Amino acid sequence: MSKHSGQVGLKNLVYAKMHEDGITYDAPKILSPAIQAKITPKTNTATQYADDKSVENATTLGEIDVELQTQDVPLQSQADLLGHTIDSKGVLVHSGNDNAPYVAIGFKSLKGDNTYRFIWLLKGKFEEITEEYKTKSDKVDFATPSLKATFVTRDDDNWKFIADENNGMDNDVMEHWFDAVYQPNIDNTPLSIETNPTDGATGVAATSGVNFVFSKAINSYTVNDSSAFLIKADGTIIDSTIVISTDAKTVTLKPKSTLDAGNYVAIATKAIKTAQGSAPANNVVVNFAV
């Protein structure tokens, strides 16, 4: 039986930039402490008449208007949400050629029974932010920015995910709600990884790379020189090129120069994840000798 309790709060407002594949995202980032969120879906309804009466109607979903009020909008968030850039001197540069990316936004809302409702909106673009500035007076009067966005359905026809803690929400889903944009019907088992060379290998060719073969396709946006790298045994970084296979299951570290004889360590960290957020249970470390 469903449990009923009204909404009394709003917090944990985050956003995540959508990738070009239209279904995966960057890791979520905190936007700002939230004050208010309003979601207004627009629908179009048509009615068919026959025999002098209405016999059928149909409704289609149009755009979804979203309005947010927050304590602040940090410059980095403005750059992310609106396609602006921050120059080397810390100045946010607005250009007429900037293009806002598609993003998802997520938050949770406290209910009267001290449980939460969790929400992800999946594909939208923000408009330039409405700001108000005024002089200080004898009364404290905080100026808070307003953000407006238009959301649409994603390529898989989904536009919102919503779950209630007090109505059967899975505990693991709740725990990881803000780690990644929720994806339904996924396998969250940890990634397993095979390597070539194997840990402890000797006599490895000086020109060969190191392959990490994952059990599932990984999100290429999580692979970089901080999450996969090659070093000497003394910690010296080896300049390497990172190559991801077309099926996104193999990450190869290719040294840009021939390796000298000696001991090396290749590392793939838990920061490498699938689009659904699955990651290795531990960092994978491969010790080998050339």
Automatic annotation (TrEMBL):
The record's keywords, sorted A to Z, are: Signal
Please give the start and end residues of each transmembrane region.
none
What Pfam families does this protein map onto?
Big_5 (PF13205)
Entry-linked InterPro entries:
Cu-Rt/internalin_Ig-like, Maj_tail_phi13, SbsA_Ig
Q: Which residues form the SbsA Ig-like domain?
A: 187-288
Which NCBIfam families does the entry link to? maj_tail_phi13 (TIGR01603)
Stated name of the protein: SbsA Ig-like domain-containing protein
Q: Which organism is it from?
A: Clostridium coskatii
